[in-house]
Every structure is written in C-alpha cells, then in structure tokens.
Write a structure and sequence with these properties.
Elements: H1 6-26, H2 45-54, H3 60-82, H4 96-130, H5 138-159
Helix pairs in contact: 1-3, 4-5
C-alpha cells in the first residue's frame, strides 16, 4: 500500500502509538467501584459504563482520552493511505526550538508549582512558552497569562476543589 500523505502517516502513527501506550498505563489505576454480584452492571456493559461514569476512578478519564487519541490517530493514518494529497505532503525539517522551549516550560512549571503556587507559575509558563513561536507581543502574552491563571484557578481550585497551592509558600 502506498503512502499518499507522508505527514499524515507519521502523525497518525504517532497518535496511535501514544494513545496505546497511555491506555496501557491507565489500566494500572482504578476505573471505579466494583460491581456487587447481583447488580445489573455485573452483566450489562451499558449499566457498568453508567456506573463508572457516575463514580469514575483515577484511570477512567486517562483511559478514555488515550483511546480517543488512538482512534483519532487511526483515522488520520487511514486518511494518509487512502486520500491522495498534493506532492505527497512530505515531512519538512524538524522544529527543534519550539519543542525544546515547550518541554522546558513544562519542566519549569512542574518544578515551580509547589513552592510558588498557581498565581506565579502559570504566568511564568506562558511567558516561557511564548518564546516557542516566531512572534512575541507582550500585550498578548500578559493577557493570555492573566486569562489562563484566572481560568485555571476557577476550574481546578474553585470548581474541582483540587488541592493545588494558589499562592507562594511564603504568602500562605
């Protein structure tokens, strides 16, 4: 079988591989409560899925996302083998700078979150990751940092009640 879009082929293959690896990893966590022996969820798949949706375990959401990622990859992979593209969509040069900047930004975020809190760490993440692109505008970066900090606080701390430090350790 001939590859008709090299770019779609490799990205689809990457999505499938990452999705499968993370799905396997997610199976190490609990999916939710076990079914009692006489419960309908013990024999009916839809009843089991509704019970898990009502009381998901730590592995439920990562498994679902991983399977969706693998499915998306399979669709892109199928498209790369069936739909003809102009000039074969060759893979160009690898963008090392954006990759390294984003990996650095995530590593700095992980190291800074506990001691400095969400309020300082997200703006640092946004500023560092903004250097991955070709254009840099302070107004846009600062607006993005404020919006993401407020949104992250609203979703994770206020909405989901996660115990993420909001302020630096020396503030309290």
């Amino acid at each position: 079988m001939k590859i008709k879009s090299e770019r779609d082929f490799w990205s689809g293959l990457m999505f499938v591989a990452v999705g499968v690896v993370f799905a396997v990893g997610a199976t190490n966590y609990s999916m939710g409560p076990a079914c009692p022996p006489n419960d309908p969820c013990a024999v009916n798949l839809w009843a089991r899925l509704s019970q898990l949706s009502a009381h998901p375990g730590a592995g439920y959401f990562p498994l679902g996302l991983s399977l969706l990622l693998a499915l998306l990859g399979a669709i892109v992979l199928f498209k790369s083998l069936t739909i003809e593209s102009e000039s074969g969509d060759k893979v160009g040069a690898f963008a090392w700078r954006p990759l390294l900047v984003i990996v650095l930004a995530i590593a700095v975020f992980g190291a800074m979150l506990e001691p400095l809190g969400l309020a300082l760490t997200i703006p640092v993440l946004v500023v560092i990751s903004s250097f991955a692109g070709d254009e840099f505008h302070w107004k846009g970066v600062l607006a993005n940092a404020v919006a993401l900090t407020i949104g992250s606080w609203a979703i994770f701390v206020w909405g989901l009640k996660l115990t993420i430090p909001v302020w630096p350790w020396f503030v309290g």
